[in-house]
Amino acid sequence: MPSPVRELPSAAHHPLVHTDLQPPPSPRTHRALRRLQSAHTLGAKAASQASVLSHQRREQQQQRNASPTRNPSAANSRHQQVQQDSSRHRGRANSDATSPMLQQANSVAASRRSGIRKPVFSHGQMSLQQIIRDGPNDGDYVGALESARWKVIDEGVNSAEDGMSPLRIYVWMVLLDAPIMPTDEYLGLIHRGASPAYSKIRNDTFRTLTTDPLFRRRVSEASLIRLLNAIAWRLHDVREEGRSSRPSSRLSSHPRESLTGSISGHSQARSGAVAEPGTYVQGMNVLAAPFLYAARSESEAFVAFYSLLTKECPAYIRGAMDGVHRGLALVDRVLAIVDPKLAMYLTAKGLSAEIYAFPSVLTLCACTPPLPEVLRLWDFLFAYGPHLNILCIVAQLTIMRSQILQSPSPNKVLRSFPQLNADLIKSVTIGIIKKIPDDIYADIVAHAL
């Protein structure tokens, strides 16, 4: 039997629409900048597809109580707690590791589970590409989504050594619940010219992943400027609309319901407590870089990036980036639980996460090379929730613990994290999940909202 794990509510996701997947141009070829008017392929047949949003709301509300939890005896009380305290919990806790996810992560000890079979999902016979391209069987969107998440962990997203994949951006868009957006809408933002944040953007873009040849060959600075300027315009519009009490923008008003009443900005709006809109902040250039690298067009990168910012980590771009600072405090708290000796050593040296982990929290580890490993780590984070990045950072610290403990000046060691190894980080992270108390885990889930 797979080990039971915690399960938080899950929300609806983007329709699994028919898409003709074709390989994007490789960064090893010297092709011109992708044309801005490339079609948004995910929207090709959206009008004819049944919406995953309505299906999942009905089906998941009936099924969630039967889902396994880390502590089965406390399943009912945890579910009631989430309902009563929805303002602290994210509407979609996709990051909550499921039983099959834990089993796969523990494959490093395969000899201990040699007799355990892989779990069976409703769409287990279909490949990840088939699920994304053809959609679910018999309208079973919940089963298709769970199967897709499992396949991301079990099999990964097929890609070349440089991280390029014809499928990845579509997997991300589905997992991030990114709405369909016509390319002309993106072009309209571009044609508005310089946004109020344009000077800040220009001060950041030329420094984006400057040491990564793969990124520099595929993504131009002009492309990054356009994307960030469009994001800045969209965030600016939302702020202005909030001030004038007008309805929110088309993209930001995309419905996102949770199983327990939703804790998204839309549920807050319905209750009269509308969160402050975000704005452009330094570091968003690095966070945007993997989207431009993986996408086939700037409009695809835009809609996926905007969904991440506004649905998964809006507190990272609000005010004084309060969500980032909460995340840094959680890194210290989790490290003290997972590795008390390492935590005490860093504290004795005057090193808190605020000093060494700020870039890693803000950029979801995109600041640490190599880029192909960042993409693979993001597959995991988008499948089970970007808030798991907090645990991924702690995992990296435990991986390099010997080097830190043996150094009389660990600050020098922590100035530059070792190169990412996505598979190792995922395995360690999933092991850490089981050690986290429920209250702290709930704070991790909610810290970026």
TrEMBL record:
One of its GO terms (cellular component) is mitotic spindle pole body. Signal peptide: none annotated. Residues 62-85, 95-109, 260-269 have a biased composition (Polar residues). GO terms for molecular function: GTPase activator activity. SUPFAM superfamilies: Ypt/Rab-GAP domain of gyp1p. Residues 1-114, 243-269 are annotated as: Disordered. Residues 162-385 form the Rab-GAP TBC domain. Gene3D superfamilies: putative rabgap domain of human tbc1 domain family member 14 like domains, Ypt/Rab-GAP domain of gyp1p, domain 3. GO terms for biological process: cell division; negative regulation of septation initiation signaling. Keywords: Cell cycle, Cell division. This is Putative Cell division control protein 16. It comes from [Torrubiella] hemipterigena.
